[in-house]
Structure formats: structure tokens, C-alpha cells
Amino acid sequence: MARIDVHHHFIPQPYIDAYNSSGGDPSGWVLPAWSIESTFDLMREHNTETAILSLTAPGSTILRGQAASDLARQVNVYAAALCADHPGKLGFFAALPPLVDNLDAVLAEVAYSLDVLHADGITLYTRYGEDNHYLGHPDFRPLWEELDRRGAVVFVHPTHLVDTNLVNPALPQPMIDYPHETTRTAVDLIISGTIRERKRVKIILSHAGGSLPYLAIRAAHLTYDTHLSQKDPAEFLEDAKSFYFDLALSGNPLTMDLLLKFAQPGHVLYGSDFPYAPKKTVDAHVEMLDQYVMEPGVAYSVSRGAAETLFPRFKSGNAEK
């Protein structure tokens, strides 16, 4: 069956210019080559009907102030034009200015992206600013209120730590640290009450939720039993399982065994992580996913059904494509 890829990056020229002028990605990852033709080639090879594009970290935060806001707008306008040129084949999650710079500018970009450019959702990174504000921080409440009012889909992608020193030259932060960053922000969203208060927002966690499925029970009991949180373990786990989880770099059988038991039914979605994951790596994970035995209904949900629920315009045969 044809897939819907909810974790597929693009690299427009304004971002390349910002990357080069700012000294590169603090995570230590190198900017890969990308073209829309390379996206379409991968989609054809892996029977992907639709790819939802997003700007990976550090995104607009690679700049500051008005320059960052301008970059987010340029990226979003470019993405919207691509989608208009290829209806049904492409969607996009809008980029936002840094959340810690000017929240009014952030809210304005949310409105413009969703109302004018018709973005399919919003990209947020796991943390913002040198003060290490994860997504449950009180300063971000107005943003979550607006996203909840709209019933928006939010794609959460990890970003670099405040400490950008590498443990090992062979371990830039996306290798190991990124999944843990996703876990940190997910638990922060749970403990802060954001998940329970903003139930209309649908949040997709990258990379199978990082280590959240593995650590959720540990965190649920420890935070409650040490009186660090009043959220009882059952409520914590209910919130943790309410996220959506993409399979970027996570289609292996060990991860699939745990994730399908952990997540709510219909909350696991296909993702490739192209082009930041080399094509060879994407190919290997797609092959493992294809060989993993699932009930037909679950296989359909993972390949496209869960995404169709989040993004009805991409349903097969939908005239609104």
C-alpha cells in the first residue's frame, strides 16, 4: 500500500544561506544535498504517495530576531509553493520563529501559515533558548492555547543541547542525544499539564518518541513517589500514550515490538527522515519495516491510515487534494 511520510525534510535556499552565514548546525550534523527531485525519487522507490515536508533543527533558530522571523516566512512560502505545484503529493509543517524571541511573531506566523498558506501543521523543536525552555514551559502557554483552539497538528523534532560539546567526534548529537531530547520535552509536556489541558492538539513525536516508551513507566512512578509531581502514574502513562509517534529511523523489530504495545491504536505513523538520514539508512529501515509482521489493519494504519486521520485531505481519492 502507498505510504504517507510524515517525517521528510526539505532544504530551501534561504535556509542554506542562513546555515552558511551562521557557522552551521550546533548539533554537529552536516547539511546534506537535497533537491525536490531527490525527494520524488525516494518516494517512488518506497511507494510513498505523499510526503509532509518540514525544516529540521535548528531551523529558524539558527538566526535571531527579525532575521529569524523572515527566514521562517521564506521557508513557509517556499513550501506552500511546492505543495501547490504538486497537490496531493506534498504537504508541509510550518516553520516558526524562535519561541523565546517574540511570541507575538510566533503567533502571527501560526496564523499566516495555517490560514493563508494552508500548512498541514506546525513544527516545534524540543527546546528553545540558552535558558533551556522545553515545550512545557509556562512562557509557551499562549502558543499552546492557540494551537489547541485550532486543533492543530504539531510535529515535534529534536534539536541540539545547550552544551554542544561532542562526547566523541563520531557522535554528533543527532546520533544519540536527539532521541533523549524528544523524551525530555515529552515528559515536560506531561508533567506541566500541557497534554491534559490541550487535548485538541495532536502531537507527533519524532523517532518513535525517542526513549519515552522505554522510560515512561520509570518516570511515571519516580516523579510521583518522590513527590516531585502530583500526577499519578496511571495519568502520566495515559498522557504519554496519547502522543503520535513517527517511525523515522525506527522501523526495526525491537522498536516496533515496544512501540505498538505502548502507543494508542492508530498513533504510529511512517516517517523516513530523508535527506538527513542517508538514503542507504532509509532503505535499511524501510526493508526492516516491510519485513515486520503486522495485522493487516495495523499495517495499513502505520503506512497511511493514521496519517489519513490526522490529514484527511491526503485520503486516497479525496477530491480536496
TrEMBL record:
Where the record annotates domain Amidohydrolase-related, the positions are 4-312
Keyword Metal-binding among record annotations: yes
Q: Which InterPro entries is this protein grouped with?
A: ACMSD (IPR032465), Amidohydro-rel (IPR006680), Metal_Hydrolase (IPR032466)
Reactions catalysed, as given in the entry: 6-methylsalicylate + H(+) = 3-methylphenol + CO2
Q: In which domain of life is the source organism classified?
A: Eukaryota
What are the UniProt keywords, alphabetically? Answer: Decarboxylase, Lyase, Metal-binding, Zinc
Q: Which SUPFAM superfamilies match?
A: Metallo-dependent hydrolases
One Pfam family cited in the UniProt record for this chain: Amidohydro_2
Q: Signal peptide: which range, if any? A: none
Residue ranges annotated as coiled coil are: none
Say which enzyme class the record assigns.
lyase
Q: Name one GO cellular component term.
A: cytosol
Q: What is its EC number?
A: 4.1.1.52
> What GO molecular functions are on record for this protein?
6-methylsalicylate decarboxylase activity; hydrolase activity; metal ion binding
A Gene Ontology BP annotation from the UniProt entry: secondary metabolic process
Similarity section:
Belongs to the metallo-dependent hydrolases superfamily. ACMSD family.
Protein name, per record: 6-methylsalicylate decarboxylase
